[in-house]
Write a structure and sequence with these properties.
The chain is of the alpha+beta class. Helices cover 28% and strands 31% of the residues. It contains 4 helices and 8 strands, in the order E-E-H-E-E-E-H-E-H-E-E-H. It binds coenzyme A. Coenzyme A binds at residues 6-8, 34, 36, 86-88, 93-99, 121-123, 126, 129, 132-133, 149.
Length: 181
């Protein structure tokens, strides 16, 4: 996959690529910064919100050998998946890394035949970002099973997306429009 460039033309340097098993420690550290690192089931917590990061379902952003972004998914059926473990290092926010990770993940899903994507988030700005950039729509809320993610919010906002090729066509059109600005 290719390096990213921000909309001003300066290279951000991060490379979007499939995750490797050797990335796991750095991925877990990045997720922990946002309180969304997976947890092993235990007697106290038999059903954690997230139990693992599936390497084959995950893309990462790498900058100078360091993992600075991650986005994964859980496949629920032959056509349905749920986005998971999305995070970008705050130093790298607002350079398009989150969007590039999202698009790489959608591409991976589409190639597997996934057509419906669910997402859960506890940050209003991320809800808005998912709706505006990728066409997700809010379908409801669900209670968290335990403290996870944003500790000030006790529920997830649930979103859905009908996934098809149009997402990639519309997205490249938006990128071209931005370049013309
Ligand atoms: C959600 C998240 C992954 C987004 O990551 P990001 O790399 O900042 O995402 P992007 O840069 O693609 O997009 C963010 C904004 O920056 C803008 N942006 C992109 N490139 C830019 C550039 N070169 N200059 C200025 N702004 C830019 C985008 O247009 C976007 O703005 P918009 O919201 O108006 O569309 C990140 O905020 C994050 O890690 N959040 C915490 C974890 C989290 O909430 N995870 C969700 C599951 S609980």
């Amino acid at each position: 996959m290719s390096p990213l460039h921000d909309s001003g033309g300066d290279p951000v340097g991060a490379m979007i690529r499939p995750m490797r098993a050797s990335d796991l420690d750095q991925v877990m550290q990045l997720l922990a910064r946002w309180g969304i690192a997976p947890l092993s089931p235990s007697a106290d917590m038999p059903n954690p919100e997230r139990t693992d990061v599936i390497v084959g379902n995950t893309v990462v952003a790498e900058d100078a050998g360091r993992i600075v972004g991650v986005r994964s998914f859980i496949q629920h059926s032959s056509t349905e998946a749920e986005g998971a473990s999305l995070a970008v290092d705050p130093i790298f926010h607002k350079h398009g890394i989150g969007k590039a990770l999202m698009m790489a993940g959608y591409r991976m899903m589409l190639e597997r035949g996934i057509r419906k994507v669910r997402a859960e988030t506890d940050r209003p700005e991320v809800v808005e970002w998912l709706c505006r950039n990728f066409g997700h729509r809010v379908v409801g809320t669900t209670q968290k099973r335990h403290v996870f993610g944003n500790k000030d919010v006790g529920h997830w906002t649930v979103l859905e997306l009908e996934l098809d090729e149009r997402l990639f066509i519309e997205s490249s059109g938006a990128a071209e429009a931005n370049e013309r600005k």
